[in-house]
Amino acid sequence: MKTYFHVDMDAFFVSVEELFDPSLIGKPVVVGGQANQRGVVSAASYAARKFGVHSAMPLRTAHRLCPQAIFVDGHPTRYREYSGKVYQVLKSFSPQVDMASVDEAYMDLTGTERLHGPPLSAAHRLHDAMKRSTALNCSIGIAASRMVAKVASDQAKPNGVLWVLPGEEARFLAPLDVRKIPGVGKVTEKNLQAWGVRKVGDLAALDEDFLRQHLGQWGLALAGKSRGMDAGGWFDGEVGDDNTPKSISHEFTFNEDTADSDTLESTLARLSEMVARRLREHDLHARTIQLKLRYSDFSTITRAHSFDHGTQLDTEIFQQIRALFRANRKANSTIRLLGVHASGLKPAEGQLNMLDETNTNRWRKAMSAVDRLRDKFGEDSVSLAMGLRGRFRERVHENPAGLPGKTAGKTPREGGER
Amino acid sequence: MEFTVSKTDLVRELNFSQGVVEKKTTIPILSNVLVEAAGDRINLTATDLELGIRSSCPARVKKQGAGTIPAKRLLDYVRLLPDADLEVKLQDNQWASLVCGRSRTRIAGMSRESFPELPQMPDVLAQIPVGVLASMIARTIFAISMEESRFTLNGSLLMLKSSGLSMVATDGHRLAMVEHPVELPGVTSPFRALLPRKAMGEILKLGQDSSPDAMLSFSGDENHLFFQFGQRLLLSRKLTGNFPDFERVLPKDHPHFVALDREELRKSIERVSQFSDERSRAVRMRVQEGELHIHSSLSETGESEDSLPADYDGSPVEIGFNASYLLDFLRASSEEKVTFHFKDPNSAGELRPAANGEPGYKYRYVVMPMRI
After folding, report:
1. Is B251-367 the same fold as B2-114?
2. Do A348 and B368 touch (CB under 8 A)?
3. pLDDT digits (tens, 9 = 90+) for A111-136
4. CATH code reported for the domain at B251-367
5. Inter-residue contact B161 to B187 (CB < 8 Å)
6. Domain A248-387 - what CATH class?
7. What is the least distance, in Å, from the CA of A355 to any CA of chain B?
8. Which of A1, A56, A266, A305 would bridge A400 by S-S if both were Cys, CB 3.0 to 4.6 A apart?
């Protein structure tokens, strides 16, 4: 029998903002940008949520729903810093910690009774330690599966602890809306409603074969989840499993759609730099890079290029991304969003090149110097000349879909970027 | 046009046109072979505008003239005829009628007017032994890049001097270079050109039909290269652009080397590489005291190891390589012993035939390592 904790920070971004500006405490606060800007809500305070504001909602909609809300820009560096502090507190309780995003984590506390005492008292001590070290509130769900622990922490919010005793999972889940199950979104909910399934209990009563027939593997996973088991996608692994990223990507939505090639290409340069920087942080080399391009009419294309070796160099990635962009962009079209995506990640670069090796080696050295400068003086201290003009304020999101592992990364710095 | 030709002769010559005629029908006339009858021969010409081949065979010409016939359809049909004489007659409406024994066929042709004119062969620059050129091609062709975007690497660099012939091919990961001291007295100033891979393949085919001691006449103009094998002429457009400065990347010297049995090495690498990643084909070569270890592993599948005796007493060095690259060389060379020259895991390694290899040829194969 396992004992899992799911620790979820309460209104994380807002709480961090409150630490820097106490006048925000208790007020409706929306993090993500100004009311008249394009973009989406990264996080909303509990006071703002009462008006129906939630993350991933367009900022302008949030303003309509709650005109008196205070809109603040997001500060990714602050959140990363606090996420790191949260991670340190968790790490002191168990070596098995998986940050599922910037503000939530799964912990395996199986077999720690002699060290921490029974789960509930361990949770209370963790709760206190968190408050003491970070001045932030969190909610903790405890259960024999990560799935139930996650649902429990949600039910415990804000600032609570909830332990679902082993054997009681089905009874605990049955009265909840199916939407409470991680991974069930609008689409699945609609499907299920068509079959008259609204509560988790209704889902548990369905025939497994029926679910498999209609939803495939995901149907089977759902059946398992409805009974409180870890199943499907991210839950198939174990806490502490190797979870090196499968892909790394950065996207940017322009405040105003643009057709200006200079702006577009310098934004691509900036995105390529960000992707390359994270590849190097993880010590990974990408075999495949992909360009994502969304036009003003929301039509979206992706185009990929595969290298015959792995790369983590800004210049190499940007060169190919720019070539893909020039070859595939509709002439003079206005563009809403650009994205750079790296996959096929391997720990070593593989085949070395005979003709460009000297040059590549120079870039490798230059980039490692650049990384040291950035570590010391901040991300914006050095940039490709092309990327200088493409600088933008990084946007952040708390995990709006509530999918564990959706933005999972190895280190807490990773979480939340989308 | 009207002539009689031996079926066997016609099939043999048509076979050479098959590698050249356009497979895609973007320009329909390029799928056709041009047939010209005059004197006591017929000439057959095919081209895809990059490559052209002209060959000929004896025929009894009743009425001279010319026309074009779909090359593949013609060969596919004629091949099925009995070994006998074939009468070919081109009608005014461009249909060709074929009569052989009791078989009669009509094939829709096209007028010769729209068939592209091939350039004329300029003065012969050199006489090259067919066997030498063919074996140089066989030793380099596999190292040519398959990536079409790297167009200057889609062929070999061919270099002629009065004192010899050399050929270099690279795909950026490995480089094959072969030199032969054949005397080419006609070459007064050094000649360099990029020979496309497809032309190299056709030269190999034409070479197989000639005796190795036979000579071919070589020539080149600004845009084309010409290879005349007796009655058959292959011409190819040159690749444009600059071949990389290969002399810069050729290792000057390597601190270490081991001599190995070529077949043993080939078999070992073939075995071990069964357990290498399908895409990268990475194997680890570890040279240590008295032996060469070859090792490969796939975390989910298994691992494999082979070792060969080697005369070595330096400190151990382990280098990753793409097994396919090494095998390409080991399959292309014919010598009993090869030497493997190396420095460290980040520097290029090199394979060569051991000192007393096939006389005449100087053969070097440089391979960049992999970081695994």
Report:
1. yes
2. no
3. 888 888 888 888 898 899 999 988 99
4. 3.10.150.10
5. yes
6. alpha beta
7. 6
8. A56
